[in-house]
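Entry 12.
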Amino acid sequence: MTATTSGLTAVHAGVLDYSAAWDEQRRLHEAVVSGERGDTVLLLEHPSVYTAGKRTEPWDRPVDGTPVIDVDRGGKITWHGPGQLVGYPILRLPDPVDVVAYVRRVEQLLIDVCAEFGLAAGRIEGRSGVWVPADDRGPARKVAAIGIRVAREVTLHGFSINCDCDLTYFDRIVPCGIRDAGVTSLTAELGRPITVADVLPVVDRHLSTLLAP
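Predicted 3D structure (tokens):
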């Protein structure tokens, strides 16, 4: 399925193997760089996979020998899999390129999506992604992750938001290299099932947040 909103084309790709999605990202990136295609966001789920960004340390990786795919995005190691919505915006950034401002827009998109479901989430200084603040249930915990790359003024990689995924997959790694905080999901925080199918149309509605004002 493809939907267009505010100059962005959202492609709903269903469940897609990580390597196939990476090939599609690169194909779209070339098309956006060359001007053959406008800004596009791939929205999908992956079969279970660990991916490691450029800043991943050896001790962040699984201790049980679980395979990891090394990728050229920023950030450290994370997990993708069923019950998690992944977004890959392939967008041309305005000149001069301001990567930090773009990351803030991605964060705002995710914060607004969480708010629609009744979850108050936000930023933590010095840490990427979107977080549920520490409370009587435990320390701060990440509900959405961000890892991007910009090449030739066009973005790659993107974000993931945990809907109703199996959070034990994060137990094998140090998610995003952070040891003193947890990982959570919309379902775990809200105490009711929130699926990828529930979240997808809400993300669609907020995609225009990714565009520079």
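Annotation: The longest helix spans residues 99-116. The CA atoms of residues 128 and 146 lie 6 Å apart.
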